[in-house]
Amino acid sequence: MAKKKQSENSGESLSRTAWRRFRRDKLAITGFAIIAIVSIISVLGSLIRPDQTQDVSQRVEEIEFKSPGFSTLILKEKVDHMIKYSSVFDRMFFGGKDLEYKNFAIKNDYSFYKHNIIIKRNTERNLKPDTIPLPGILYSLSYNNEYVFNGDSVTFLVNGEGRITRTIDNMQSEVKSANIFERTYWLGTAKAGRDMLSLIMASNIVSLTVGFIAVFISLTIGISLGALAGYFRGWVDDMVTYIINVVWSIPTLLLVIAISLSMGHGYTTVFVAVGLTMWVEVARIVRGQFLSVREKEFVEASRALGFRSMRIIFKHILPNVMGPIIVIASANFAFAILIESGLSFLGIGTTPPQPSLGTLVADYKDYITNDGQAYLAVLPGLMIVILVLAFMLIGNGARDAFDNRSSVGDIPASAA
After folding, report:
1. What is the predicted pLDDT for the residue at 96?
2. How far apart are the C-alpha atoms of 55 and 359, rounded to whole Å?
3. pLDDT (tens digit, 9 = 90+) per residue, 201-242?
């Protein structure tokens, strides 16, 4: 039975064997699960985060720097400008929707007086109560608006809709049910009362997008140059090796900063700059693998059958060297997240108001010694650590899974 099991394992494809080994690695699976969860949250974007506005632009000035778990009543008031309604796709991948309501943090002792609501703001400052017209809470009103009373109803002008008549009792009931609600800030609030949980959720998609596109660029360039150098050798190998050595001699962070400054600040600049610096290691790994595999019998047989060089490279050799490439891609993903966070921390990465983990750490690094406000810098920093650690666990698991020397562990003890 043991010999039969061993024979079945030996007949397995390399990818199937590697996946079976990878699934046994609990740390690698944990890292994979973390990345999967963060990716799903990032892709859904503003559809699921508490602050669904573009770049988390909702501000509640009264409750800035509140600790995690803080709860308050919120009154939302319609903003006085035309709203550009976004599609679900735009809200998922392009930051969120336009700011539709202005929020006030209020205390429980609000009251209605005719067509107005009287609120007391939830702040430590001794502010006088505010009186806000109910039509202004429910609608985007026209400028120089005048209210016309007709018994228990009010007539007023609304932008884009003309003249509307509503009863006072009906407006009071609608405001109480739809515009006043309790909200809990699970990770606290940042400057100007921005929701910290939403900021971190919006920052994750920046980190993952930069990592994905930067790794894609590095793999495209690195695999192409490394494959050509390792397969054709000769002057092609000499030229590619010279380029690799020149780029390799320049400190990576210095090269990324130079590319970023030359291309200008911005979201797209970051992943282009990172991708153009990470291809060197990929090219070195691929070149070495091709130099080894090109001498194998199946490559010689492919040449003898008259297959073209490009077919041999991409259909016969490349699939057999994907193991090391997957490992280096996982490590580069973690490296790209670190570089993006570092650039944003230095102020040459993503530009405000777009949130980034590195920008959050930079904005609140001075608060780390403040009593009760260290979370402002610790939480985004911890998120960077979690993402990098998850990708490193995946890389280590992939390395062990593709290591043929570990195949001894796949043989049952009784067979040995």
Report:
1. 76
2. 13
3. 999 988 998 899 999 999 999 999 999 999 998 899 999 999
Tokens of 143: 């400028």
Strand partners, 111: 118
* pLDDT class of 83 with cuts at 50, 70, 90: low
Structure tokens at 407: 């195949």
Is the separation of the CB atoms in 48 and 204 below 8 Å?
no
Alpha helices in 249-374 (DSSP H): 252-263, 267-293, 297-304, 309-311, 322-346, 357-364
Q: How many CA atoms lie within 13 A of 87 on its CB side?
A: 3
State which amino acid sits at residue 240: V
Distance CA 185, CA 80 (A): 26
Confidence bin at 403 (pLDDT 50/70/90): confident
Neighbours of 296 (CB within 10 A): 13
CA-CA distance, 328 to 391, in Å (whole number)? 11
Give the number of other CB atoms < 10 A from CB of residue 389: 15
Is-contact 266 202, C-beta < 8 A? no
What domains lie within the chain, and their CATH numbers? 2-41+198-410 (1.10.3720.10), 58-193 (no CATH)
Amino acid sitting at position 403: D
Q: How far is CA 162 from the centre of its chain?
A: 42
CA pair distance 163, 111, nearest whole angstrom: 26
**Residues 201 and 42: beta-carbon distance below 8 Å:** yes
Confidence tier at 363 by pLDDT (50, 70, 90): very high
Distances (CA, A) of 32 to 151, 202, 395: 64, 20, 10
Shortest CA distance to 384 belongs to which of 64, 34, 46, 47?
34
What is the SS3 assignment for 300? Answer: helix
pLDDT of residue 329: 92
Whole-prediction pTM: 0.86
